[in-house]
């Protein structure tokens, strides 16, 4: 699942700046429900990543049964933190 596809699927646009607070909350809720039902590891990771960036991701221990998937998520979090720290400088 491509990032832009997720944005359009859950928020109706690929520009979150155009999403109302109500639509954002609704899209996040739909994504959280679908995340809980998703069985494909790649799709789950993609949805979790977007939820993380939106501040709405479930805890790693809840989200991923596999230790390797949790480690990948931690690396993603670290990389995102590095990028965000670089933007502050």
Question: Can you walk through the features of this model?
Answer:
The chain has one domain. It has 5 helices and no strands. The chain has helices at about 5-10, 20-35, 40-55, 60-65, 65-89. α2 (about 20-35) runs antiparallel to α3. The chain is globular, with a radius of gyration of 13 Å. The termini are far apart. The model has no long low-confidence stretch (mean pLDDT about 90).
Strand content: under 5%
**Percent of residues in helices:** over 70%
Class from secondary-structure proportions = mainly alpha
Number of DSSP strand runs: 0
The H-and-E topology, N to C, reads as: HHHHH
Low-confidence stretches: none
Overall mean confidence score, pLDDT: 92
Strand count, sense and barrel status of the largest sheet are: none
Taken from the alpha-carbon principal axes, the silhouette is globular
Could you give the distance between the termini?
Answer: 32 Å
Total of DSSP H or I helical runs spanning 4+ residues: 5
Rg (C-alpha, Å): 13 Å
Provide the number of structural domains.
Answer: 1
């Amino acid at each position: 699942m491509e990032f832009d596809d997720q944005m359009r699927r859950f928020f109706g646009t690929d520009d979150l700046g155009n999403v109302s607070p109500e639509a954002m909350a609704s899209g996040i809720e739909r994504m959280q429900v679908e995340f809980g039902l998703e069985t494909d590891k790649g799709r789950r990771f993609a949805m979790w990543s977007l939820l993380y960036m939106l501040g709405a991701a479930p805890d790693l221990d809840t989200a991923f049964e596999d230790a390797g998937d949790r480690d990948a998520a931690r690396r993603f979090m670290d990389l995102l933190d590095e990028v965000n720290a670089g933007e502050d400088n």
